[in-house]
Amino acid sequence: MMTILLADDEPSLLELGQVFLERTGDLKVITALGAEEAMEILRTTKIDGIISDYQMPGMNGIAFLQKVRIRYPEMPFMMYTGKGQEDVVISALRNGCDYYLPKGDDPKAEFAELALQVRRMVKNKNLERDLNESEERYRLIIENFTGIILQRRADNRIIYANGAVERITGYPAEMFMSGDFSWDTIVHPDDLPILSQAVEDARADPSVVSVSEYRIITREGDVHWVQESCNYVRKKSGKIASVHGTLYDITDRKQMEEQLIAQRDLGLSLAAARSLDDAVSLCLDTASRVAEMGFGALYLEDAHTESYVLSCATGFSDAFLSSVHVIGKDAPLARRVAAGEYIYARYSDLPDMLGFTPEKERVQVILIIPIIYNNASIGFILLGSNYTDIIPDSSLMSLEVIAYQVGNAIARIWVEEMLAQAEVGSGFFKSTPVE
């Protein structure tokens, strides 16, 4: 039921209007003797629409309409006026009146028309409001959608693309929908069979909804992992006409999975390692892969010389490694490592951290990860890269775990080597004379 506010300065018209309007059964009418009283009712009562006279003392219908539009901009508003007041009608429409009806000599017929028009007015306003709300919800969904809504033909030519297209792929959606763009042009060549297999599965089973994970190559040349969920639209013949799907970037998730696998594999390998050389090589290789940095060196503490000594390396030139083979504990870098500090800096900052200028190396950034055992630094991993991208927090957390694994493994192997030396020195392994 619609609740209508009827405003007029004539009590008899209010009473008559209420009777005629409510006679339809779907309208409830609240009356107001003038615009001021109507404004008070609006403050306390939910109203679906307003019918107002124009000629009222104190505040006429136009002034009332203006106040309503300021406070209740979407409120349906109808005005009825005396005949020959075309200027009032024009002013009302300019101020946002939805409908108007001229007064005549037949109140019964006029109120019947008012009832008809007020239903139509409120219905149209509600439809307009619902449409605007629906469009706003759709806009917010699209703007905040982190994936891509993708529609493509069976031959992978793109029909429609929306959402985070450019953020994920580097290509604007308009380029995708140009008619000449094929989705498989950005799919990693090694993963093209995954798309083909999904289509083959759909041909074999019409009810299938495929979920695939594969790599794409962005416009910038970066490799991203994506997950795509697809439905298949078919022609009457049963052939696949188009593929409708949603696609999300899962690169971070994939990286975390790979890092967890790397940590697990490293832990298993270190448990089986019996030599220090094997352990540090395993650790350096895993750290380089997790950080995606192609240059690496691992240093261990030498308590006798009060320094950190290079234990193993990869990627760096021999000249560079020779110049930084030993790093004294009085160097700024060593002091920061001893304090357990992670360092991510430009390669040009390295001389200040070392206290001397090493041989030139072809890297732009360096990452230094302390190796901690029993709350003390026993070494560090130095990684280098030509790329200056910020390292994700997940990778740094994984590197921290790897450094912890390194510390425990090195300490265990040191203890095992000392015990073995002590046993040899005690004569435990000496041959027993044959009698």
From TrEMBL:
The lineage of its organism: Archaea, Methanobacteriati, Methanobacteriota, Stenosarchaea group, Methanomicrobia. Residues 134-206 form the PAS domain. Residues 3-118 form the Response regulatory domain. Its EC number is 2.7.13.3. The keyword DNA-binding does not apply. This is histidine kinase. Keywords: Kinase, Phosphoprotein, Transferase. It comes from the Archaea. GO terms for biological process: phosphorelay signal transduction system.
